[in-house]
Amino acid sequence: MNFQIRKYLNSLQIECKEVLRLGNVGDGGWNICNDDEYRPRKNCTVISIGINNDFSFDDAIANEYGCMVYSFDPSMDKKDYRRSDHVQFYAIGLSANDSPLGNWKMNRLQTIKRKLGLSKIDVLKMDIEENEQTTITDMFANNTMDGVLQFVFEIHVDSNAVTKSKNAKTDLSPRRNKYLQSLANLRIIYNAGYRIFSAHQNPYSLFRYKKTRTRFTCHEISTIKIKLD
């Protein structure tokens, strides 16, 4: 199953002539299309959801384009604060509803946009550790993604890497329900007009089994919005 997702993601759907890696080269950085038609311009806006104490992307895109960046993460034990002239942090997570998750404050994307007074978003970055499985459908409902030009995100297809005994084989295939949900989410994104220009496996999500078998459970995907006929 994991092979089929890799095959789909490796077949890029549109060409971006100039791909910029903003932020860390490894985990924490993201690929942005800098082609004239898609690059962020004056008074650009970025929403970055899922920071995990790594602001390298947020700082880099603010410095590169002068964008106003709104950063969100409820898991960092930080209160809302102004990180710089161009980066504002909120201790809020993204969800399919506006109900709290334990002690974490959670909002839908449409709620976040309404609170910030945003209609146009040059780049939306999302890395929410498997919660995209249930959140993407809500994000793409009711025209919430209208005005988002670039959507970069990570999908998580975890594996059943549980060994019951020393001699048992480990099942490294993704759980069927999450695999199917990931495919359904990719279809939603495609049908909304987003086309993949960059995708790769996150090397930090590698599972190894007896040095001969490997699986990646996370894929970083960068898309741009095209005009549908």
Automatic annotation (TrEMBL):
One Pfam family matching this protein: Methyltransf_22
Positions of the Methyltransferase domain: 8-168
Residue stretches spanning the membrane: none
Signal peptide interval: none
Name the record gives this protein: Methyltransferase domain-containing protein
Species per Swiss-Prot/TrEMBL record: Tegillarca granosa (Malaysian cockle)
